[in-house]
Amino acid sequence: MQDYELEEISKITEYVKSDRTCTQMTDSALEKWIADCAGRRQNEVMKSNDEGRKSYYQSLSALGLRKLLHAVSGAVRKRDFFTEETVIIRSYITVDPSYVKLSDDELQDKAEKCTERRYNEVQSGNDEELKAYYSSLSFRDRKSIPTTVFNSIRGLGILGKIIADKSITEVMINGYDHIFVERNGRVERITERFESPEKLRDIITRLTQAMGRSVNESNPIVDTRLEDGSRVNVVLPPIALNGPIVTIRRFPEEGMTIQKLISSFGSLTPEAAQFLEKLVRARYNIFISGGTGSGKTTFLNALSNYIPEDERVITIEDSAELQIRHIPNLVRLETRNANSAGQGGINMQDLIRSSLRMRPDRIIVGEVRGAEALDMLQAMNTGHDGSLSTGHANSAHDMLSRLETMVLSGAAQLPLLAIRQQISSGVDIIVHLARLRDKSRRTMQITEVVGMKDGEIILNPLYDFVEDKDKTSLRHVVGSLQRTENKMIHPDKFIASGIYDYL
Q: What is d(CA 195, CA 132) in angstroms, rounded to the nearest whole number?
């Protein structure tokens, strides 16, 4: 097959499977649906600028088109042997209720014996496709079957296998049979799937209960984390229309450093990194803004490495994901959901207020989302310099507007002018991050919050990201964070810390 043919089969198959009932369609209905999807794809190509792909479609004979549609049909109807077999082998174990009394070693041994039993059954049966599947398995692949069966009973099933892959940075589960992962900044769909929606819900319940959280129809949205610190968001039906939704954000085991952001990701320049280090050591209040997936938490983890080891640091998070390892005097606080009776909940505001009585040198708020913004700003304005936090926004200016809105959500009676005064006095520096069109994460701006003028907060950009227009393209952005001509308006904290070469 030509490259274009393989790519188009894959693309049309994706369109066909967008209707999740396609595998239950009659042959004639599926044939018509495939033809409709192929026509849709062809129209898209002919309207595009891809001349090579246009030529491919123009050269297709009637026979060639039929072969293309037949290949798509085969891809849609393709059996998922791995899932089928793990379900069958699992049933061999669970048919006897006493399996719950088995130790982990005994259960693993039973899974291996049942896998061997199933293999012998297949070899003596008449399913030639299934025989061919087992014959094609390597020794390693064969061993993965009992492991998956064991995990489906005692562990996290397919999810355990996925998160064991260290190259995966994000997992997106859109229902039991639609799983996407992110590797190296690229999102791709994987073939693994859960046995059923019920099995996925069982794993979700097990995962959330292990971290002291509950998720059900009356409480269908939950934020939690895995034991390794990975961030987990769960949304259940009826809120989620296409089944249970799970999103997992992984974090590097080694922890992020500014040096890695410079050398491995190109997010910063050495000059800008040195400036940020001086800002942290001089105890400037720094706010990190950016869109979803722009790397705010990663950046915050990296910045925290510059905090002196002899300070007392308190972190406050919805779900603990910060990885501060070099501070001995570290207090980690995490919110708690209310119980089924609506009691016992502890929110971000509660934790920020409590932290002020713990003699902190610095307060780090993982992410500001709502009314707790006012408490954080008040802490910044009452002698707790050096605080760090993050927030969702599309620019540094937008972050200021977001902070205003968040404060108003919990204190609507406050005048807007008073809120802006709190922001301009509390926040010293905004670092804005973005995920660019080539999927790279870059530091777009480092700006100083100067103060108020005519009722508006004034920003003073110190570093701006500048693209190299001669080298950049749609697929690859070339550029760097460059120093502006603006001087720093408020170097007071630098001078108080004995830092005079701040810029």
A: 22
